Hints:
Layout: H1 3-11, E1 28-32, E2 35-38, E3 43-46, H2 49-52, H3 61-73, H4 85-97, E4 102-108, H5 111-128, E5 136-140, H6 149-153, H7 162-165, E6 173-175, H8 189-201, E7 205-210, E8 214-215, E9 221-222, H9 225-237, E10 241-245, E11 269-272, E12 284-289, H10 290-296, H11 314-329, H12 332-347, E13 356-362, E14 365-370, H13 376-385, E15 388-389, E16 396-399, H14 407-419
Helix pairs in contact: 3-11, 4-11, 5-10, 8-9, 12-14
The site of pyridoxal-5'-phosphate has 15 residues, from helix 5.
Amino acid sequence: MDDWQRFEREHVWHPYASMLQPVPAYAVHRAEGAWLELEDGRRLIDGMASWWCAIHGYHVPELNAALRAQSERMAHVMFGGLTHRPAAELAQRLLSITPGDMQYVFFADSGSVSVEVALKMALQYWQAQGQTQKHRFLTIRHGYHGDTFGAMSVCDPVSGMHHLFASFLPQQLFADAPTAQCDAEWDEAQIASFRQQIEAHHHTLAAVILEPIVQGAGGMRIYAPEFLRQVRRLCDDYDVLLIIDEIATGFGRTGCMFAAEHADVAPDILCVGKALTGGYMTLAATLTTGRVCQGIHADGAGVLMHGPTFMANPLACAVAGASIDLLLASPWQARVRHIEQRLREGLEPYRAHAAVHDVRVLGAIGVLEMTRPVDVARVQQRLVARGVWLRPFGRLLYTMPPYILDDAQLDQLIAAMGSVLDDV
Ligand SMILES: *Cc1c(COP(=O)(O)O)cnc(C)c1O
């Protein structure tokens, strides 16, 4: 181990990790296509797309060029009182591809912050209407919306760290999450808990917030589009805004450009992030409709009270614009459909294994839910030995790979997942 690695291990925090008893972190030297190349020369197929962001893979010529060109002009300027073309062009692209009738864009510096901004938009909307009693949020269990406090308050109450911060967190409302996998199996009982919560509490609700069709970090769960359609209807019936968090699902991951399209549902407020820059840098956005925007300003004085230092960073906007162009110019739907089919054929047989509780596939998402928690360090070591990078959590061994994996890489990934079932 090099000196820098020893130093890093002793002084630098990793996500959700102990500084005193660190689990191994593999040192990456470079990355290209779907490959991560480690400092020791080993090459791994990336099955995680760097937490679902690197949809085009790594070292992408088009994205490198956009970044280089923008860095020659300016890396950053403040967005308070100044503006620039990369922000305008990215906003235009986002408004043209997002579901519903989004008309206004707020650029945030991470997904969690875009969720905070979405919550603020909803709260300020009702305040400006003089309905200050509408200040709570309703969501479904097993959700994940980020690690900042507002976002945490609408994460799953069991897995979402509420026990650590209960005395500080705002109290929100939780309905049971749906379990059905497709509309064919739809059962009205799926929506009963949600319906009951919104009926009982709509007077105090600013908005409903949820992840569309796929609940990601809260459990990699896939649910029926009919649930989302009924949520939209109930929000309309009871005059509650709907915030759709597409941070994990946006930009093609589920087979549609945005997962809300599976249900043909339009949000009032929409969060995007993660794959927005193709995994190059941190950027997210909160989008909303004319109705919400005008509502926020209804009292004539209202301004949206948020403004990060690095708001609409030009480098990030430029690379995000290039990433969207690259996605739209690529056969992304066919690629994602092909990955889906291959994952389904490859992972489904593992259902027969005694350690496997469930197998779930949608778009470029493949999930093995085990019967017991996965020993992450051990399983990761085995996977790395087989040339594959995955980061399991809880009882989940899953992949959300770059869309550019070829068949040999996909098959190696699927085979590696099968090879560790006896270890978990
Ligand atoms: C990752 C994620 C977030 C948080 O985004 P960060 O960029 O990590 O702050 C919010 N919502 C969903 C659905 C996510 O997957």
